[in-house]
């Protein structure tokens, strides 16, 4: 089989984990192996055919935003899949479409030369005696053109080499942080105003005299209690600041909002190592009308006493020292007041979760390679968190 058909077969049945690179070739389980630089039958809209290495890397990283994907390919010096080709190529490789106009079957390799040299005018062994004809000429020029690959495309021309956009990235990041800070403050102000309004209604209804006023006030009391019990302001989710954990301040937004796990090192390189102080996340994975907002932080030492009243969840590292100087007696008290999550790869050793299994935390497993499973893991986090929030409000 040709490389494109084999890659599509493994991708559609969700078996990309069996595709491994050994030296300069890709091995598809124990069935097939092809050179990494082998050309495929899929033709780019800009001309030329994509190599097997390009398609494998694209399949493993198609969940990234196109800018992050381009950055990753440059770091590994792998040719990119262009933006116009992304969707139709992904649909074909994942089996969403059965064919594509961009597929060109590559011409077959030239036949091997005859073992005996042919001399015009003389019989050429048994074949000549049998009346065999001379093979038709092979169009080598067409074969070469079919295997050509462009050295530059529109993406590479826009790279703007020898120019540093770091200052632009810094300014953009600061603007985003300021926008999030303003939104967070607005939500806090709105929640405080709502609490005061409910309290005001409670006062007026209770002061109106008669049994009806007292009953109305008692109806409002649970709502007021719920708001004050959670704490005034946006709920806080804490993540570890250590880079060896799966969920960090860098990638938490993509995971909780989009249901996609992006490795921290990839996000750090894309952000040039700029660490956000606070990230706002919302549940966007369902069609719920009411979408709650949460602040995500990774520096517990900066929290004030009132801030700790707003902490509702924590992603644990699995180390006791993570909770050093927390305002709680021990991890038992912590996980009675705060819901804990421990993220791990599903094929990690049991030892990696040995400590957290002794804690009252929820272990969430994701795959190292099957990114389409990330959404289910993120939804499980949201479901557990919302269930905890409901129980905390009563």
Word description of this protein:
With about 400 residues, this protein is of the alpha/beta class. The protein contains 14 helices and eleven strands. The protein has helices spanning about 5-10, 50-60, 65-75, 85-95, 125-130, 140-145, 155, 165-205, 210-230, 250-260, 265-270, 305-310, 330-335, 375-390; strands at about 20, 25-30, 30-35, 40-45, 50, 235-240, 280, 295, 310-315, 340-345, 360-365. The protein has a six-stranded mixed β-sheet with strand order 7-8-6-9-10-11, sandwiched between helices. Helix 1 runs parallel beside helix 2 (about 50-60).
Largest sheet: 6 strands, mixed
- CATH first level of the largest domain: Alpha Beta
CATH homologous superfamily heading of the largest domain:
RNA polymerase II accessory factor, Cdc73 C-terminal domain
Strand order of the largest sheet: 7-8-6-9-10-11
The domain tally reads 3
How far is it from the N-terminal to the C-terminal residue, by CA? Answer: 62 Å
Q: What's the total helix number? A: 14
N-to-C order of helices and strands:
HEEEEEHHHHHHHHEHHEEHEHEEH
**Class based on secondary structure composition and strand pairing:** alpha/beta
Multimeric status of the protein: single chain
- The CATH architecture of the largest domain is 3-Layer(aba) Sandwich
Strand percent estimate: 5-15%
- Helix amount, in percent? 40-55%
So what's the overall shape?
A: elongated
List the uncertain runs. 107-111, 121-125, 127-132, 206-231
Gyration radius, in Å:
30 Å
Mean pLDDT: 78
């Amino acid at each position: 089989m040709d490389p494109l058909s084999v890659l599509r077969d493994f991708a559609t049945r969700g078996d990309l984990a069996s595709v491994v690179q050994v030296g300069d070739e890709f091995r598809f389980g124990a069935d097939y192996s092809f050179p990494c630089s082998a050309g495929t039958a899929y033709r780019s809209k800009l001309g030329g055919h994509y190599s097997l290495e390009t398609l494998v890397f694209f399949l493993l990283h198609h969940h990234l935003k196109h800018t992050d994907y381009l950055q990753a390919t440059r770091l590994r010096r792998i040719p990119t899949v262009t933006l116009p080709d992304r969707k139709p190529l992904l649909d074909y490789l994942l089996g969403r479409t059965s064919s594509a106009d961009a597929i060109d079957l590559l011409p077959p390799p030239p036949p091997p030369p005859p073992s005996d040299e042919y001399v015009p005018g003389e019989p050429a062994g048994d074949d000549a005696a049998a009346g065999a004809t001379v093979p038709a000429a092979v169009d080598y020029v067409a074969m070469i053109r079919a295997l050509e690959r462009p050295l530059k495309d529109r993406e590479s021309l826009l790279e703007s080499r020898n120019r540093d956009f770091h200052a632009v990235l810094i300014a953009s990041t600061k603007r985003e942080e300021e926008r999030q800070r303003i939104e967070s403050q607005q939500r806090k102000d709105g929640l405080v105003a709502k609490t005061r309004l409910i309290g005001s209604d409670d006062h007026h209804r209770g002061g109106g005299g008669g049994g009806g006023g007292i009953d109305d006030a008692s109806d409002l009391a649970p709502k007021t209690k719920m708001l004050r019990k959670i704490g005034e302001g946006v709920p806080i989710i804490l993540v570890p600041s250590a880079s060896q954990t799966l969920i960090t301040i860098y990638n938490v937004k993509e995971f909780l909002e989009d249901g996609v796990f992006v490795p921290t090192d990839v996000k750090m390189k894309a952000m040039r190592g700029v660490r956000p102080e606070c990230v706002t996340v919302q549940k966007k994975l369902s069609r719920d009308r009411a979408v709650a907002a949460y602040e995500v932080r990774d520096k517990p030492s900066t929290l004030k006493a009132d801030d700790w009243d707003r902490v509702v969840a924590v992603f644990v590292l699995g180390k006791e020292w993570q909770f050093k100087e927390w305002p709680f007696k021990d991890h038992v008290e912590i996980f009675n007041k705060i819901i804990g999550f421990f993220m791990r790869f599903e094929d990690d050793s049991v030892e990696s979760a040995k400590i957290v299994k002794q804690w009252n935390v929820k272990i969430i497993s994701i795959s190292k390679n099957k990114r389409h499973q990330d959404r289910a893991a993120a939804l499980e986090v949201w479901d557990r968190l919302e269930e905890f929030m409901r129980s905390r409000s009563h």
